[in-house]
Amino acid sequence: MDQRNLTLLTDLYELTMMQGYFKEKDANETVIFDMFYRNNPHGNGFAVCAGLEQVIEYIRDLHFDESDIDYLRGVGIFEEDFLDYLRDFRFSGDIYAIPEGTVVFPREPLVKVIAPIMQAQLVETALLNIINHQSLIATKTERIVYAAKGDGVMEFGLRRAQGPDAGTYGARAAMIAGCIGTSNVLCGKMFDVPVKGTHAHSWIMSFPDELTAFRTYAKLYPSACILLVDTYDTLNSGIPNAIQVFKEMKNAGIPLTFYGIRLDSGDLAYLSKKAKKMLDAAGFSDAVISASNDLDEYLIDSLKMQGATINSWGVGTNLITAKDCPSFGGVYKLAAVKDKSTGSFIPKIKLSENAEKITNPGNKTIQRIYDKETGKIIADLICLVGETFDTSHSLLLFDPIETWKKTMLAPGTYTMRELLVPIFLKGECVYETPKVMDIQAYCRQELDTLWDESKRLVNPHKVHVDLSHELWHMKNQLLDTYHRK
Amino acid sequence: MDQRNLTLLTDLYELTMMQGYFKEKDANETVIFDMFYRNNPHGNGFAVCAGLEQVIEYIRDLHFDESDIDYLRGVGIFEEDFLDYLRDFRFSGDIYAIPEGTVVFPREPLVKVIAPIMQAQLVETALLNIINHQSLIATKTERIVYAAKGDGVMEFGLRRAQGPDAGTYGARAAMIAGCIGTSNVLCGKMFDVPVKGTHAHSWIMSFPDELTAFRTYAKLYPSACILLVDTYDTLNSGIPNAIQVFKEMKNAGIPLTFYGIRLDSGDLAYLSKKAKKMLDAAGFSDAVISASNDLDEYLIDSLKMQGATINSWGVGTNLITAKDCPSFGGVYKLAAVKDKSTGSFIPKIKLSENAEKITNPGNKTIQRIYDKETGKIIADLICLVGETFDTSHSLLLFDPIETWKKTMLAPGTYTMRELLVPIFLKGECVYETPKVMDIQAYCRQELDTLWDESKRLVNPHKVHVDLSHELWHMKNQLLDTYHRK
């Protein structure tokens, strides 16, 4: 999977602009771009960021090979000196990012690129593509796992994913956000995550009858024997046949460690309750009752409310496509340009009629503020690199738009942690990506830093993202300057 | 891109079932699986099928390499004899499919796999993944192109696509369904389709002022000079500056062949009309007015109704994610099993409470029936392989569920065409995939075989998909047999 050259995975305009910078400007001018998003998908109270490992691979491998150069020549708008320049193109800048699995909020830079403008411009599209996709699926998955309240959630969606990568990297993101396994074998191989699965209706149909199909399956896979019971008639055929097979296993002395049924159609609340009664009556009260069939967080929540006795969930289409909001609106905006004479960054701002859409200028970082006692997040503070904070002093937080909304944190009651960490410095990768299952464990800790009120599915409590006084002041000065023009 | 080994791009259960067939059955038993879908996405009247080229590449390249075998061994449920068998695994069966770019309808087999059960089972997941994705995006794109009523539509969505493949193969599907170009350079390279694009807000912001940014762009790209006018103030700065640059080009004797403006925010109806007036007044009435900003078929339709003067459309997120319905519900169902003694296929059926969900059994093909005079589609007829039809005789069509709904076609008034063509025979590919731009031309012809009533965006007229009398009879006999049990 990693052998592909994704250097041309970019919008043409990145290349036309690059040639423009090359021809008409100082191509080595250093700039800062921030990748951030404006709204949490699915009405969630936060997002779970993901995709950094693939961004790192992409950046590391950036190079135009001869076939790329030949192709670009054929497009007819690029000149030879620019094509020559591309031949030796490598990424030589700095990248800071928030580690994967972190809980993040709108307007925070998830990735910050500090690099010569040519390089910073080229990487925009692929960086957005990768982070947008995986953060979307991680966020959707977190909602589904949250609704399952501790039951295992399996990722099943490969066949409905938007292409091979969407299936495989989507499953990776799903694992980060708490799935216990994926059906996608390639994802299992690439990222060393648990793969799971049983059988399809076609297994049952390829045997003369359901009982034979079940018996054969149980003989082959006695230690993970989940039988699909809805091929012919769930209550009159599927469950009785499954119970029959469990009895035969028990009588044969085969330990029933992980066994049970899967419901894939019909009224899951009703069928699961009936199934539970039938399994209990036969002495199989520890059997797994798993369910699938177009599930999402709302259906799982509703089934739980109805007293469904399902304790394992297979989720496909709605998870792997993030169906009710299939895009994560991450953007990549110019934040500063380095002044060659002074070496300092000149902040840049993108205006908009809509206050929420005005960008935050300058070379920024994020301080996350935790309540010392509970460990929960109080707020995030976007600030300028170089600003120092002392948690033994009080700290005044204020809403950057409705500035009369203020909170004073008392000395010693809070802790701070910087979210952006260095990933590339001068083109060298200085970050080691944790394994996916370690990111999952980290993500679980991250989720513990949120109150339940911020995790609920509908109308969650909003966590404040404030600007430091220094950044707020810089932004307002810039706005004043523009408005005076 | 094609160097990846996608053999493990499958659900684990395909492999657990394969081992089951290997251990417990005749692994060479030949079966037929049909890939079909049940509902047109987006409430459309049809779908545009796509993705076959990638399925062909996937099937051709199917093989388990040593690292795959090692990985599967580590999963802990596969035995050595089965792993040995996988080492020499190749696809040796037949595949029939409907060519890409064809207009298709629910319940028609888009792909038919006739192969030993082990092989037919393995390919399910990847085949569905690929065809589902590309058919989804092709169908969504057709709607957008239809709404644009002859204006050019550009695909712009890479940054919001669900991963690299979704961007690249999604753009491929968009080209099949009628986009005039894509911003995705990798797609352009891989599939020899036009790539297009101009500049971003960051281009404008990286210059001291907008006019300088425009001038520089015009100097570099005079023959495709579309200027983004909304960075600061569309009407008071962007358009006047663009007109200034067009005047300078004209005065300098630079031919204005393809030039104009792009609107990316604000009220596109109002701004485009204002822009048109300003451009006309300055003598630039042939300037392109292009628009982007979260467009879809409904917005384009509405803007046209409002008299917007936009004549070029850039569509991103909504197209590349098929946002309002981001999955194509293609399924893959067992249709028949070969009887070793007789060599004939025993039809198989999957039951359901819902008549629409009962599968069509047997070895089938599809005859498309056209009106001889208009060339428009009258209906599709799913029938059994080997059935013959004579268009010089009358033909009785009837609805397969509401059987009293009948139509009699008079002799000589209709023509027929078989939709499924051979792709693989005995494991050998016998089909040459056309180039994407040729598929686009074919797709345009295909769309001409539909009445406008079937193409409208909301409540389109439904094209009938009927069963031949022979197939209908076989299906009902099978249903009777099951119900008697």
TrEMBL record, chains A, B:
Gene3D superfamilies, per database record: Aldolase class I, nicotinate phosphoribosyltransferase
Chain ranges of the Nicotinate/nicotinamide phosphoribosyltransferase domain: 153-321
Pathway field: Cofactor biosynthesis; NAD(+) biosynthesis; nicotinate D-ribonucleotide from nicotinate: step 1/1
Main EC class the enzyme belongs to: ligase
Domain spans labelled Nicotinate phosphoribosyltransferase N-terminal: 8-132
EC number per UniProt: 6.3.4.21
Catalytic activity: 5-phospho-alpha-D-ribose 1-diphosphate + nicotinate + ATP + H2O = nicotinate beta-D-ribonucleotide + ADP + phosphate + diphosphate
GO molecular function, one term: glycosyltransferase activity
Domain Nicotinate phosphoribosyltransferase C-terminal: residue ranges: 364-475
Posttranslational mods: Transiently phosphorylated on a His residue during the reaction cycle. Phosphorylation strongly increases the affinity for substrates and increases the rate of nicotinate D-ribonucleotide production. Dephosphorylation regenerates the low-affinity form of the enzyme, leading to product release.
Described purpose of this protein according to its UniProt entry: Catalyzes the first step in the biosynthesis of NAD from nicotinic acid, the ATP-dependent synthesis of beta-nicotinate D-ribonucleotide from nicotinate and 5-phospho-D-ribose 1-phosphate.
Protein name: Nicotinate phosphoribosyltransferase
Gene source species: Enterocloster alcoholdehydrogenati
Higher taxonomy: Bacteria, Bacillati, Bacillota, Clostridia, Lachnospirales
